[in-house]
Design brief:
202 residues; alpha+beta; 9 helices; 4 strands
């Protein structure tokens, strides 16, 4: 497998997953400089001119959440995704898509400093709804984590959510809610994230 990324990109969130799966030696890491990310050579791989991107034979997986889901399923014996017939797989997928959808949209809107009045005017068309909806969803999820998002089983979704919480808090796009702490402290103890600065800072 070839993994195209950049040290200054969200591609860093995949590094702990590689460790959890024990596949670091199976992946060729290819650094894509931002100055060359729109070169024709890379655009043939990902026309979106974004990283990360994973190439596994004929498959080109260009979305971070998709890479998480793909690798957790590819190495299903590692136990980082509920089985296909496990009802908790629905919860697992919900969190992957929440992070990639509503939560990312919320952070983008915060970064762009969209006025609250404009958000409320368009909230029914936004996947995030509004800030109150995002906070309520996160708080409920944290309270229900027992101890992880799908119960006793630690999954790729836990790692992905922890990354986005850490990212949003550090860039002041999201406050560090009290409800985050038990969940974040559990994730920080995992061997795969001991040298991950963006998470250990929390």
């Amino acid at each position: 497998m070839k993994y195209y990324s950049n040290k200054q990109s969200r591609g860093n969130t995949l590094l702990p997953l590689f460790k959890e799966l024990g596949i670091e030696q199976d992946i060729e890491m290819i650094e894509v400089e931002y100055a060359k990310i729109r070169d024709e050579e890379y655009l043939r791989i990902n026309p979106m001119a974004k990283v990360p991107c994973l190439v596994d034979g004929p498959a080109v997986i260009s979305e971070t959440a998709a890479i998480y889901a793909y690798l957790a399923d590819k190495y299903h014996e590692k136990g980082l995704a509920p089985a296909l017939n496990d009802p908790m797989r629905g919860e697992y997928l919900k969190w992957l898509f929440f992070c990639h959808g509503p939560m990312t949209e919320y952070m983008d809107i915060q970064y762009l400093q969209v006025a609250d009045a404009q958000i409320e005017k368009c909230h029914s068309a936004l996947s995030m709804g509004n800030e109150a909806s995002i906070f309520a969803f996160l708080k409920q999820g944290m309270k229900q984590a027992n101890p992880y998002l799908t119960g006793e089983q630690f999954t790729a979704a836990d790692l992905y959510l922890a990354y986005w919480i850490a990212y949003a808090v550090q860039f002041k796009l999201l406050p560090y809610l009290d409800e985050f702490d038990p969940f974040i402290q559990r994730i920080k103890k995992r061997d795969s994230v001991q040298d991950i600065e963006w998470l250990q800072k929390l």
